[in-house]
Amino acid sequence: MTIAPLAAGLEGQAIGGRDLASSDVTQAEIEDARALVRAAQEQLARDLADIERATAALRLAEPALQSWSRPATPSIPKTRPVWLIIGVLWFSTAIVTVGAAVAIAALAG
Protein backbone atom coordinates (compact mmCIF):
# COMPACT_ATOMS: atom_id res chain seq x y z
CA MET A 1 0.00 0.00 0.00
CA THR A 2 1.45 3.37 -0.92
CA ILE A 3 1.32 6.54 1.11
CA ALA A 4 0.24 8.83 -1.74
CA PRO A 5 -3.34 7.49 -1.93
CA LEU A 6 -3.56 7.68 1.84
CA ALA A 7 -2.40 11.26 1.85
CA ALA A 8 -4.95 12.12 -0.81
CA GLY A 9 -7.63 10.49 1.29
CA LEU A 10 -6.61 12.47 4.36
CA GLU A 11 -6.89 15.88 2.73
CA GLY A 12 -9.80 17.89 4.01
CA GLN A 13 -10.09 15.73 7.14
CA ALA A 14 -9.45 16.87 10.67
CA ILE A 15 -6.96 15.58 13.23
CA GLY A 16 -7.52 16.73 16.79
CA GLY A 17 -9.96 19.40 15.66
CA ARG A 18 -7.59 20.87 13.05
CA ASP A 19 -8.09 20.74 9.31
CA LEU A 20 -5.36 18.83 7.43
CA ALA A 21 -5.41 21.36 4.63
CA SER A 22 -4.36 24.14 6.98
CA SER A 23 -0.69 24.98 7.27
CA ASP A 24 -0.45 24.47 11.06
CA VAL A 25 -0.58 20.65 10.73
CA THR A 26 2.87 19.19 11.02
CA GLN A 27 4.29 16.47 8.86
CA ALA A 28 4.62 14.25 11.95
CA GLU A 29 0.87 14.47 12.59
CA ILE A 30 0.15 13.53 8.99
CA GLU A 31 2.52 10.55 9.25
CA ASP A 32 0.86 9.53 12.52
CA ALA A 33 -2.53 9.64 10.82
CA ARG A 34 -1.21 7.59 7.92
CA ALA A 35 0.25 5.04 10.34
CA LEU A 36 -3.11 4.77 12.10
CA VAL A 37 -4.88 4.23 8.79
CA ARG A 38 -2.37 1.54 7.78
CA ALA A 39 -2.67 -0.16 11.18
CA ALA A 40 -6.47 -0.16 10.95
CA GLN A 41 -6.38 -1.60 7.42
CA GLU A 42 -3.88 -4.29 8.44
CA GLN A 43 -5.98 -5.20 11.49
CA LEU A 44 -9.07 -5.47 9.29
CA ALA A 45 -7.21 -7.76 6.89
CA ARG A 46 -6.04 -9.95 9.81
CA ASP A 47 -9.54 -10.11 11.25
CA LEU A 48 -11.03 -11.12 7.89
CA ALA A 49 -8.37 -13.81 7.49
CA ASP A 50 -9.15 -15.11 11.00
CA ILE A 51 -12.84 -15.27 10.16
CA GLU A 52 -12.14 -17.18 6.95
CA ARG A 53 -9.91 -19.68 8.80
CA ALA A 54 -12.54 -20.18 11.50
CA THR A 55 -15.22 -20.66 8.86
CA ALA A 56 -13.15 -23.30 7.07
CA ALA A 57 -12.41 -25.12 10.34
CA LEU A 58 -16.09 -25.10 11.27
CA ARG A 59 -17.06 -26.45 7.85
CA LEU A 60 -14.65 -29.35 8.35
CA ALA A 61 -15.67 -30.03 11.95
CA GLU A 62 -19.44 -29.71 11.59
CA PRO A 63 -20.60 -30.27 8.01
CA ALA A 64 -24.19 -30.74 9.20
CA LEU A 65 -24.34 -27.04 10.04
CA GLN A 66 -24.30 -26.20 6.33
CA SER A 67 -27.76 -27.62 5.73
CA TRP A 68 -29.07 -24.09 5.19
CA SER A 69 -27.01 -23.80 2.02
CA ARG A 70 -28.72 -26.85 0.49
CA PRO A 71 -32.35 -26.62 1.52
CA ALA A 72 -33.90 -30.05 1.84
CA THR A 73 -36.85 -30.84 -0.33
CA PRO A 74 -39.87 -30.80 1.92
CA SER A 75 -41.58 -34.18 2.01
CA ILE A 76 -45.28 -33.47 1.76
CA PRO A 77 -47.37 -36.52 2.47
CA LYS A 78 -49.59 -37.41 -0.43
CA THR A 79 -53.08 -36.33 0.50
CA ARG A 80 -56.25 -37.89 -0.79
CA PRO A 81 -58.28 -35.73 -3.13
CA VAL A 82 -61.26 -34.04 -1.49
CA TRP A 83 -63.66 -35.22 -4.20
CA LEU A 84 -62.81 -38.84 -3.36
CA ILE A 85 -63.69 -38.32 0.32
CA ILE A 86 -66.95 -36.59 -0.64
CA GLY A 87 -67.82 -39.44 -3.03
CA VAL A 88 -67.21 -42.10 -0.38
CA LEU A 89 -69.36 -40.14 2.08
CA TRP A 90 -72.26 -39.90 -0.42
CA PHE A 91 -71.94 -43.57 -1.34
CA SER A 92 -72.02 -44.69 2.31
CA THR A 93 -75.01 -42.43 2.96
CA ALA A 94 -76.82 -43.97 -0.01
CA ILE A 95 -76.10 -47.53 1.22
CA VAL A 96 -77.38 -46.71 4.72
CA THR A 97 -80.51 -45.11 3.24
CA VAL A 98 -81.18 -48.08 0.96
CA GLY A 99 -80.54 -50.47 3.86
CA ALA A 100 -82.96 -48.56 6.06
CA ALA A 101 -85.61 -48.58 3.30
CA VAL A 102 -85.19 -52.35 2.80
CA ALA A 103 -85.44 -52.92 6.57
CA ILE A 104 -88.61 -50.86 6.81
CA ALA A 105 -90.13 -52.65 3.80
CA ALA A 106 -89.25 -56.04 5.28
CA LEU A 107 -90.74 -55.20 8.66
CA ALA A 108 -93.83 -53.52 7.27
CA GLY A 109 -94.61 -55.91 4.53
Describe the protein:
The structure is a single chain. The protein folds into two domains: 1-73, no CATH class; 76-109, no CATH class. It is built from three helices and two strands. The chain has helices at 3-10, 27-61, 82-108, and strands at 14-15, 18-19. Helix 1 crosses helix 2 (27-61).
How many helices?
Answer: 3
Averaged pLDDT, please? 81
Count of distinct structural domains? 2
Beta-sheet strand percentage? under 5%
Order of helices and strands: HEEHH
Widest sheet: strand ordering: 1-2
First-to-last CA distance: 110 Å
Q: Which spans of ≥5 residues are poorly predicted at pLDDT below 50?
A: 1-7
Gross morphology is: rod-shaped
Q: How many whole angstroms does the radius of gyration measure?
A: 40 Å
Helical proportion, percent range: 55-70%
Total strands? 2
Determine the structural class based on helices, strands and strand pairing. Answer: mainly alpha
Largest sheet: 2 strands, antiparallel
